[in-house]
Amino acid sequence: MEDVNGYIQMIDFSAYSLGTTDIDEAAVQALSENLMHSFTTSGFAYLKNTGITDEQVTSVFDVADKFYDLPVDVKQKYRRNETDFHERHGWVCMEGENLGKLNGLQRPPDLKELFNIKPPLSGGDSWPSEVPEFEETCMDFFNQAHDLAKRVLELIARGLGTEAADFLDMFKFIGKGRNSSHLRSIRYPPVPETVKENQVRCGEHTDFGCITLLFQDNAGLEVAKGDGEFVAAPPITDTVVINIADTLQRWSADKLVSTKHRVMLPYTPETRGTTRRCVTFFTHPDFDAVMKCLDGSDKYPPVRAEDYVASRLRKMYL
């Protein structure tokens, strides 16, 4: 392992990368230990040699740009349904989300727009027909990210001393139904000349699933250290940023750390004119999974995953 910024470590994932079939048990065990070190300290890591390439990521960025460049009245046809408190498929307009609320912050809404990809589609959801390749490109990447997330979850189960097969059984409906996991494309446009007081691209927050995979093309992500100082987590070619989220911190009885992060406005006039794009894969357990502390400590009372996610969404949107 090596430090990227004195805080977040770079981990070589080649021992268990996608497509790897000749598994070296000792190398996989060492990989699990490296992941656990990062996830019990900073809660973040960079993974290299995962089997997902920058070319695959760029293809999603490019097809998403074709959608975002459509007129607003066209994009409105694909607006995310927000009549219930589940993660839903569809577009969210500029300033349509305020993640700072999750941390109790009083900020204006975020300067970003996004599209959630959440199969299978529910009633009223659809793929943008104006961009015919959108569905195939995004679903191919959804499946790649899902496969990588499952490998990471298996290594986490190993590190926590829990049976991997039983743990992964709590995630069997990803992409199939009663599960909140989704792929999210986000575009942060160039900063307008006038912004609201204290407005940022993405407010300080922790994620509320189990793990998040983040693929990014421009700087902006900042991660909080234990002393409250934020450090930059810049894009690095052919890597994915991964972090622990609230559900897994609770499930692990606080052994794994869900760390605050944010995307601020660029700090220089030159960079304020740039666009930032990212694709994230938010991994959740199935709705009916009952999360009891994996170490048997009962530090937190059991809770259904669906109920926990719904409580977090209410906090953000109400």
Describe this structure in words.
- The structure is a single chain.
- By secondary structure, this protein is α+β, with helices and mostly antiparallel strands.
- Helix 1 (25-39) crosses helix 4 (134-160) and helix 2 (54-68) packs across helix 4 (134-160).
- The strands form 3 sheets. It has a 9-stranded mixed β-sheet.
- It has helices at 25-39, 54-68, 72-75, 134-160, 164-168, 246-251, 269-272, 305-317; strands at residues 2-3, 9-12, 44-48, 90-92, 113-117, 182-188, 202-205, 211-216, 221-224, 230-232, 239-244, 261-263, 276-283, 290-291, 303-304.
- It contains 8 helices and 15 strands.
What's the quick description here?
The chain is an alpha+beta fold and 318 residues long. It has helices at residues 25-39, 54-68, 72-75, 134-160, 164-168, 246-251, 269-272, 305-317; strands spanning 2-3, 9-12, 44-48, 90-92, 113-117, 182-188, 202-205, 211-216, 221-224, 230-232, 239-244, 261-263, 276-283, 290-291, 303-304.
